Amino acid sequence: MPEQVVTVEGILRDQARMTPDDQFTFHCGLDLNCFTACCADVSIVLTPYDILRLKKALRIKSTEFLEKHTLPLFSAQQKFPLPILRMDAETKKCPFVAEQGCTVYADRPWACRMYPLGVAKPKNPTAPDQPFYFVLHEELCQGHGQGKARSVRAWIAEQGIEEYEMMAASFQELVLHEFWNREAALTPQQAEMFYMACYDLDRFRRFVLESRFLELFEVDETRVQALRSDDEELLEFALLWLRFSLFGEKTMKIRPDVVEARRQAARQGSVTVTTGSSV
Ligand code: SF4
Ligand code: SF4
Fold first, then answer.
1. How far, in Å, is the centroid of ligand 2 from the Cα of 51?
2. Which of 14, 143, 245, 268 is 20 to 30 Å from 81 at the Cα level?
3. What is the DSSP secondary structure assignment for residue 129, as one 8-state letter?
């Protein structure tokens, strides 16, 4: 996945727009001189599900994964934090590349699976700006025009992308929310919440199970049990909690006794009633 400097305007203007049924011809493998050349000096943004898969594959906690293998990408324009895969400081190579290829192939990130395909998803898709796929052409990649032709749909199935897209749907809803159009950057506390809930799942698990979280929010016991060991369930729950905390949506329910206690305290003038997330 070589770094491709592309702008939204450039994509919309220059790229041939492909539907899932359109075909392209591409082959990647050990037989090509460029094999693994694309696994260096590249910015790969990791999604929450990418991190979940990689930390499980490496049998390490999310906190350790983030510290060892990522760099945070966060700016006023970006609005919310994104981790990118950290290349080796000297060789500039991906930490997971070896002579024989990707050592985390079964759990490689979404961007690595998609390459050389890109997907453009306008924030507010209108008739002329529907989501579409396109093929990235880069000089170092010799795979174009090699091997068999297949449809975009077939590529997505072959590369195991559907599972990643299903898991990414809730994250996309979060980051494409109109909240980001209205609001300035997150406060440092909100950015930290976002980072923990999306990317540092093992820390988020401790936050849910070992703080006063479950005293404040109604979460049924079956779900609590699932949150103890099921990372996918935990990620979905984390994204619901962010929607509650950042957007004020009713995706979480505060326990009635907590609401009542806060009302009483407010009547007595000792607290202000809020439905925020400061647990
Ligand atoms: S994760 Fe695997 S496929 Fe992706 S850049 Fe690293 S070595 Fe290459
Ligand atoms: S064909 Fe393209 S994607 Fe495959 S190894 Fe070569 S540069 Fe990377």
1. 23
2. 14
3. G
